[in-house]
Amino acid sequence: MKRIVMTGGGTAGHVTPNIALIPRLKKLGYDIHYIGTEKGIERKLIEKEGIPYHIVNAGKLRRYLDIKNLTDTFRITQGFMQSLAIINRLKPSIVFSKGGFVSSPVVWAAWMNRIPIVIHESDYTPGLANKIAIPFAKKICYTFPETENYISKEKGILTGIPVRESLFSGEKRKGTEICNFDDEKPSILIIGGSLGSEVINKSIRANIKAILKEFQVCHICGRGNVDKNYQGIKGYEQFEYVSEELSHLFAMADLIISRAGATVLYEILALRKPNILIPLSKKASRGDQILNAKSFEKQGLSYVIMEEELGKKSILEAIEKVYSNRKNYIHAMNSNKAGNGIDEVIKVIIQCSK
């Protein structure tokens, strides 16, 4: 039996593609293990899958000077030693890394043990952890065609993102029941990312009365971000976070408003949902979501509002515009060649396994 060690974390986008691969890897007979942090979102998500989970310390990788770099250097070193011990003990056939700061020590430990490494980059440009991992990787799976300009062409393979097959089994009726909605108005699903978005939350709530005249709104607003002042309003349902229910909420949605992390973009594309993207600003990120969103906008797959424009542009006008043109967006999605990346990524894993 071949053994695979998977890693990746920090946000749901670094974990859910790994989860999408797990059922197929099990069918192929792989013994699957996961390395992540103690308190990261990856632990809760992976342990639900019944996969052995190994904890290591991890320090954040930063592109700027910060006193925390000193303490995090120690944590990264500690994480590397822990990863080395785990890799030595498990002796996997391959390591698959989805990025995030927890992945770097695992990649280094695998390379030290001559274990083949496959990394997956979801975004338009590689994140810092994957940039560091690229020299050690045997193959680099990537998602956006434009990404080939930022990686080694010899190592790179355009695979797309693995999308969880469970998302395709959602039922509109169940989504409607979860939200206590009816069939009289179309439904909007708002996804602010696994950590939520204060900017999106404020914008939606400031316009909620006007929006509810024509639509029903299911708002996934992030942990600790449910506003009690808006509870009990007919047609507006708030959730901190959803897991098993997500497929039904996707099925229910006639339109989606979302951040522009690559994973959720390709889930939206796979499900053919008209959407409005509000990418994370450069002030709070490296700008990857802006590039992701612009790529989708250029292909006619999405309507984009920059975070800085939320106060100037009417969110209601954007909703009405996208909904009235929903057939054009769905047509563009149906014409897009990007599919579920599971098959292609699995091929790479099989080819690279020892």
Give a structural overview.
The protein has 14 helices and 13 strands. It is α/β, with parallel strands linked by helices. It has two domains: 3-163 and 339-352, Glycogen Phosphorylase B (Rossmann fold, 3-Layer(aba) Sandwich), CATH 3.40.50.2000; 166-335, Glycogen Phosphorylase B (Rossmann fold, 3-Layer(aba) Sandwich), CATH 3.40.50. It has a seven-stranded parallel β-sheet, with helices on both faces. A six-stranded parallel β-sheet has the order 10-9-8-11-12-13, sandwiched between helices. Helix 3 (68-90) packs across helix 4 (103-112) and helix 6 (172-179) crosses helix 9 (246-252). The longest helix is centred in the first third of the chain and has 23 residues, at 68-90. It is globular, with a radius of gyration of 20 Å. Pathway: Cell wall biogenesis; peptidoglycan biosynthesis.
Order of helices and strands: EHEHEHEHEHEEHEHHEEHEHEHEHHH
Total of helices: 14
Rounded average pLDDT: 92
The count of strands amounts to 13
Gross geometry: globular
Report the structural category. alpha/beta
Residue share in β-strands: 5-15%
Low-confidence parts, pLDDT < 50 over ≥5 residues?
none
Rg, please?
A: 20 Å
Compute the number of structural domains.
Answer: 2
CATH class of the largest domain: Alpha Beta
The oligomeric state of the chains shown is: single chain
Strand arrangement within the widest β-sheet reads 3-2-1-4-5-6-7
CATH superfamily label of the largest domain: Glycogen Phosphorylase B
The CATH architecture term of the largest domain is 3-Layer(aba) Sandwich
User: What is the makeup of the main sheet?
Assistant: 7 strands, parallel
Give the termini separation.
11 Å
Per CATH, what is the topology of the largest domain? Answer: Rossmann fold
Helical fraction: 25-40%
EC number: 2.4.1.227
Pathway: Cell wall biogenesis; peptidoglycan biosynthesis
Subcellular location: Cell membrane
InterPro entries: GlcNAc_MurG, Glyco_trans_28_C, GlycoTrans_28_N
